[in-house]
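ok trying again, last paste got cut off:
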Amino acid sequence: MKKILTSIAVVGGLAAMTAAHAGEIVIGQMTDRTGPLANVGNPLGDGVRDYIDLVNSQGGVGGHTIRLIGIDNQYKVPPAVEGYQRLKSEGAVLVGLFGTPITQALTADLEKDKTPGTTPGFGTAAAADGAAFPYLFPAAASYWSQAGASVEYAKQQMGGLKGKKIAYLFYDNPAGREGLPVLRKLSEMEGFTLNEFPVPAPGIEMDNQARDIARRYRADFVISHLFGRAPSVQINALTRAGFPLEKVVSFVWGASEADVDAAGGNEAALGYSGLQFAGVGDDFQVRRDIRAMFKAQGREPRTSMSSTVFYNRGILIAALHVEALTHAVEINGGEADVTGTQVRDGFRKIKDFSLGGLLPPLNLAGGDHEGGGWVRVFKVTKDGFAPATDWFKGYRDVVFEMIKEESAKKN
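nice, full thing came through this time. structure:
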């Protein structure tokens, strides 16, 4: 078996590795190993790395080893841009991005260089239109799809929307603001009042917003979009203000085990709900396979596996990358020296991909680079997260029409 070559390094911290060797496929993955989103980036990055190691331990892709180069972008644009240049010099044919500001900064470079980039659950919603953004793959529900799904869930919980008051509590940066167009559109369509409550970075104080939501605005429901340390702060602030957590649903980056633990545990967060674009928990064959790999190598499983929300998303990202690379190698006649364009075409061959139930049935063919916009709501119980819905899409026709209108502006 070929030696697994995996590198996780802070940009500028380690000497550059040599360019791709024969029989090797080089890919990059950006995560926040340090900085404000390290609680997300570390388990997610470990999930990516471990799945790639699993694939390499089983012979790689078509007999070719995948070399994963990790970049810690610290949720800052300059290190991400520098890291991307390093990945180019190393011969990476695919880059997993991390963060909406980083995605916006690198989109033009990815297209110019014909290098596919993935942005699962974040980034630019218009990139779901593969005709306009041929080298960008959201590959999971974008913030626009999450906004539509959140409104659909609120509608189900309240038995209707007309005359209701919904609060949008959001991190005041490009990611937090990304969902606003859909929320505003659906407010007009469905006849509910939308009030917006921005939270300045780093999101560690929001008692004023919580009191306004609960006592002045008297919201019927809260849709939140926070990340990093902010979700746990939100849970405690809304509770102090007397707002019931059963009437809160979070976008995908604000509902993890770490958020619940930081808020005081399951009892403190009972009833709090969040959207997910991958399964939550340990009961998936792919996680059992990773544990078996560790055992065979004489290692203990990573502690980060207990953060199943984010670790499982790392598995999702890596599995999609491997699936695209598998198709690309086939397109390239079995050879490892695939091009970025062949990898792009490999993504576009992914159909009904669910990884043993860890994912909804993702379809990246047919021009929808988002894969359908599927989500599932999980609710905090005394025993942890439990599914509150099946996989569903919210206002998909409205959202995709808006995506087409937005992507048309690119030209």
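cool. Residues 308-331 form the longest helix (24 residues). Residues 6-141+280-357 form a domain with the Rossmann fold fold (CATH 3.40.50.2300).
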